């Protein structure tokens, strides 16, 4: 008797799961079409993309952050504008007691009365410490307050911050309503001239154009060395003082020679 065996049913192969290639292609296309995320520019002027320009009306609340006077008092640009009669003038300088900065500060000192006649309040602004700025103010007999901005928040807000660090010499003027009247870099005399034009004062400032360029060249070189750490501000200050003493001695010697010549001429006239 023949035994019949049951044949096994063949197992069908399992189909592979569908690929997600189409979806990935769509996702890639979508990511290409989607606009790149961009950070909104802050309204307080702390972004270089949001650099202030003449004619802009800025929101003073929070603009430039908190700074400090050379006397150690905390303040803001908003507070300074509110305390002023007609607006605020900020002249920026790289380093206190260096040649170019001394020239600039003294020009604003000498022009202080006419520049403030229409109600502007003048301030010097740098990243120096209160101690350095107080020494600078006292030695040069400056009639205005010097502002200390070690983090350069206000300096950056008004567009006077160098990259990666440092301060551009310049001037920034704003009126009581927050309208920017001036915002530009310039040499010692040029920054004063900007303000003179705003207040309607005619005539050039004392320093000539060539003197201004010379002060910028000499001062900027020394200021860059101070900022990079090659030279200490105290060394520059003592060197400046020594040069001043030498000039005084030279002037005294010249005066003595002139006096001797005058005496000799008088004796000759008497004997004639």
Describe this structure in words.
The chain has nine helices and seven strands; from the N terminus they run αββαβααβαβαββααα. Mean pLDDT is about 75; it is low at about 25-30, about 35-50, about 205-220 and about 240-245. By secondary structure, the protein is α/β, with parallel strands linked by helices. It has helices at about 20-35, 75-85, 100-110, 110-115, 130-140, 155, 190-200, 210-230, 235-270, and strands at about 65-70, 75, 85-90, 120-125, 145-150, 170-175, 180-185. Helix 3 runs parallel beside helix 7 and helix 3 (about 100-110) packs across helix 8. The chain is elongated, with a radius of gyration of 34 Å. The termini are far apart. The chain has a seven-stranded mixed sheet with strand order 2-1-5-4-3-6-7, sandwiched between helices. Helix 5 links the parallel strand 4 and strand 5.
Q: If you compute it from the alpha carbons, what radius of gyration comes out, rounded to the nearest whole angstrom? A: 34 Å
Name the overall outline.
elongated
Count up the helices. 9
Give me the secondary-structure category: alpha/beta
Side by side, the strands of the main sheet go: 2-1-5-4-3-6-7
Helix content: 40-55%
Largest sheet, strands/sense/barrel: 7 strands, mixed
Topology pattern, helix = H, strand = E? HEEHEHHEHEHEEHHH
Mean pLDDT: 77
Overall strand count? 7
| Percent strand | 5-15%
Distance between the termini: 175 Å
Poorly predicted runs of 5 or more residues = 24-31, 34-48, 207-218, 239-244
